[in-house]
């Protein structure tokens, strides 16, 4: 048997892969036991069947696999944490490189830097760094891969105080499309380094990331849950925007899930779940958090005030509610959310019949906005809010039915045409153009032409070579 992504590509054989990679890097094909587990990824409703899943043990294994796939013209997909919301970590007929074996981390505690494997999760990294009172900013969920979140930009609970994940990226070891291992940073191949900071998986397989570590030990964080009203939705966004940069808020406006932490009478009703992190001086936390708590008080009182002093890494624990559900969603940027937009959002969330529906509003600014828009391939530095509207359904067909609702609501909330690549639900040209505006697009295409002229790495929000 040979592996080929479509009739126009040539093929690479499993025997060839096995011979080149050796026993330390297992190759699993549809004929093998363990194929179902090997191809499993996080999002529901995605059922990709790669021709082979390769689990390289090290950088050389990645390089050999890429080399073979490149020479054969086979499609490559890259899987790190497996959380791509539209299932990028696997692709029909592709050679999937599963990087989960590259999960090492080397901390230079005194030098405040870390080398992390391309397949480590944000949670594992943050726990290891947290043991030394250190952190690198990732997102809000520990199971997300450092690989995907970093290459797309990375917005999370430390964004306003320490910037995006890419703002702490110091360098990377990359296997490029021709199977070469390249070290890049601000001085070595600076265009490639620029492109990796937001350009996604377009430019190669990152086998190791070098990050800055910051002193972040105890923070005040957790969930502040309150009834959703037009005033509370707009008020949380405004309070988070006006707060000192030490405060980051990710507001989920959603139908409350039937979780024990939510009072039973609120299950299924629309609430604001403000996932909050104060990483400034602990004795200033109450002052910084007071405006948010005031919003809750004016909305009738907090349904839950879970804001506690805790190690930062514990905020990444826990994940989305499990179970075989499928989401459809749309990302957008906005300058803010005023009361009229908030009233519309509330009315839409209340009237939709999707089993769960939500708008996530992440307030940016702070250190995110301190970086010039052309300094990284993530260019939306001026946006005050990155959002996402989502409807959850039991299966893919039902989820597709909510697409017009999702689009209309995102259109009402958005402030322009931009898209955040990590929240995008498709990898088409329109999405890529929205993610990479103007000069960013042109520069990315030129970098792509240099490093991947044949577009081997196209299982992503794709930037075609210039
Ligand atoms: C529950 C959940 C929570 C999330 N929270 C946040 C958040 O707080 N902030 C945020 O910014 N995003 C968040 N995201 C979005 C997330 O950042 C993206 O989905 C990201 O692509 C996931 O990365 P991954 O490695 O887990 O996924 P994968 O599916 O394994 O990888 C996605 C793609 O990234 C590329 N890639 C990954 N690793 C590498 C590598 N080492 N080298 C080359 N290419 C690579 C490949 O193109 C790959 O197909 C969240 C997603 C989910 C599902």
Automatic annotation (TrEMBL):
What Pfam families does UniProt report for this protein, alphabetically?
BBE, FAD_binding_4
Q: Which cofactor does it need?
A: FAD
Instruction: Supply the alphabetized keyword list.
Output: FAD, Flavoprotein, Oxidoreductase
Q: Which residues form a coiled coil?
A: none
SUPFAM superfamilies registered for this protein in UniProt: FAD-binding/transporter-associated domain-like (SSF56176)
The record ties this protein, via InterPro entries, to: BBE, FAD-bd_PCMH, FAD-bd_PCMH-like_sf, FAD-bd_PCMH_sub1, FAD-bd_PCMH_sub2, FAD-linked_Oxidoreductase, Oxid_FAD_bind_N
Q: Where are the transmembrane segments?
A: none
Gene Ontology molecular-function annotations: FAD binding; oxidoreductase activity
Name the PANTHER family on file: BINDING OXIDOREDUCTASE, PUTATIVE (AFU_ORTHOLOGUE AFUA_1G17690)-RELATED (PTHR42973), FAD-BINDING PCMH-TYPE DOMAIN-CONTAINING PROTEIN (PTHR42973:SF39)
* Entry similarity comment: Belongs to the oxygen-dependent FAD-linked oxidoreductase family.
Task: Give the protein's recorded name.
Answer: FAD/FMN-containing dehydrogenase
Native organism is Krasilnikoviella flava
